[in-house]
Every structure is written in C-alpha cells, then in structure tokens.
Amino acid sequence: MSVSKDAILKVAGKAFSRHGFAKTSMDEIAKSARKAKGSLYYHFESKDGLYREVIIEELNFLKDELSVIFKMEDHSTLELLKAYMLKRMQILKASVNYQETLRPEFYEFYEFLNDVKIAMDTWEKDQIEILFRRGLDRGELELPGSIR
Predict the structure, then answer these.
(1) pTM as predicted
(2) Residue 57 to residue 53: CA distance in whole angstroms
(3) 10 Å Cβ neighbour count for 104?
C-alpha cells in the first residue's frame, strides 16, 4: 500500500469515527489529509469504497491480534478462550467504524460491507472451531451427551 493511501485511510478512519459515515465528506477527508480530492478518488472509487477499506483495516487488525492468541500452544483451551474474548472485546471497543456498521440505521449502506462482514464472521467461526477441536482432542473439553 502506498504512503499516500495509508495516510488517507488513517485520516478517513478518524473522520468516520468522529462524525460517522453519513456526516463525513470526501472534501473533509481530503482537507484533513492535505490531499487533493482527486487523490482520494485515485485510490478509492467512492466514499463507500474508502469506508469499506477503513473497515477492512480495522478487521485485519482484529484478525492479526486474535491470531496471536490462537497460536499460543502452551496455554489451555479455556485460557485461550478467555484471552480471545477479552482481546476481542478490547479491540472491538476501539473499532468505532466497524461498530457503526452494526447499527440499524446503517443498513441502507449494508450492501457494500456485506462480503467483508461475512468473511470476518467465517474466519472467526473457523478459528473458534479449531480451538474447540483442540480442546476436545486434548481432553480439556467434553461434549454433553446430547450433542455427541
């Protein structure tokens, strides 16, 4: 990613988290980033596209941070689950832009983020399933009789 694109993403992320998607303009982002508005459109096809990239950056950060926990082999499954939940909540609390996409009034913009949200949900479910299977294989977890 180019330095210019990174700078725009950082400024846009702050602007979106401060004012929300609907109240943030490309003009404001360009001014704050000290870039020509055309520079924004060079890197991003639209405000929707820019916002999508901001959300992807937040979710990639979440994945990177959580991946570290899933790789900690010397901890029990329950310790990892606890660490995972605490870290996830800590990061999502700071992921203001992603939180905005979860609000009911944001659903009109849901279409351009649907794939991003589905991919994150799938990744997260896969990681948790791997962790539970590990716990079962190690004998740290047991399935209730009715689930077997």
Answers:
(1) 0.78
(2) 6
(3) 6
Amino acid letter at 19? H
Q: Please say whether the dihedral angle defined by the alpha carbons of residues 129, 131, 137 and 140, taken in this order, is positive or negative.
A: negative
**127 is written with which tokens?**
């990681």
- Closest by CA position to 4, among listed 30, 27, 25, 22: 30
Q: Which two tokens stand for residue 137?
A: 């294989």
The Cα 16–Cα 100 span in angstroms is: 9
The parts of the chain modelled with pLDDT lower than 70 are 1, 3, 103-110, 112, 146-148
89's CB contacts (< 8 A; 6+ apart) are none
